[in-house]
Amino acid sequence: MGRAWIAAVLAFAAILWAGGSRAQGAAALELVLAVDASTSVDGDLFDFQLRGHAAAFRDRKLVEAISGHGGGISVTLVQWSDPSAFRVLIPWTDIADSAGAARFAAAIDSLPRRPLRGSTGIGAAMLNAAGLFRSAGEGGPRRVIDIVSNGYNNIGITPDAARERILAQGITVNGLVILDEVPWLADYFAAHVIGGTSAFVAVADNMASFGRALLDKLIWEITEQSPAAIQTAERPE
Predict the structure, then answer these.
(1) Mean pLDDT in each 10-residue stretch from start to end of the chain (237 residues)?
(2) Which residue in 150, 147, 194, 192 sits closest to 172, CA to CA?
(3) How far is C-alpha 170 from the chain's CA centre?
(4) Which of 1, 73, 90, 117 has the fewest CB atoms below 10 angstroms from its CB?
(5) What is the C-alpha separation between 117 and 101, in angstroms, rounded?
């Protein structure tokens, strides 16, 4: 086992120990953060996605959104590519304050930067993410899947078919698209990927704008505030 994996295991242990006193499912929001690790994402972009998530959980505005949200949030971070390649990077972690957010950010920093490669199976990633939720959704916390990608589905179940099954479970799917390769990707996500209560697509025009778009997206999801400037293409409810 390499040093990077040992560091990651220790970081996971710390956040699990810190959240162990809270009842499972007690958070007001369960959020799956799913980052693209397919062939279209090189090592630099994959690392950039992870660093962006770590920076967001250290940001004062996000911490305030979490601490002001009754029950806090429960979050897990995963990476995905083709239908057979889906990996949980950080298990479910309860975050209610700045200390919890800082531990989660430190756990992200400790992760090895290893993209999965493979094709872009967004539909399969959505279904795999939906299978991770701890609650059943009936009167429980809101459940949201957050798909980050720079490409469109090119293998496996279509996002439309996956979305239909996921929405039937009361789960919302949001998206963050990186427009470094496919200029129409936001419209694609709006039409075929996102769905559910107040679903939206956040857009990063390039790597430089990714951090800002990611932070805004997380705050929107936690506070349930509909962003003013989002893709408004027709989407199912």
Answers:
(1) 43 42 65 94 86 96 92 95 95 97 98 87 98 83 96 97 97 96 96 96 89 94 68 42
(2) 194
(3) 17
(4) 1
(5) 29
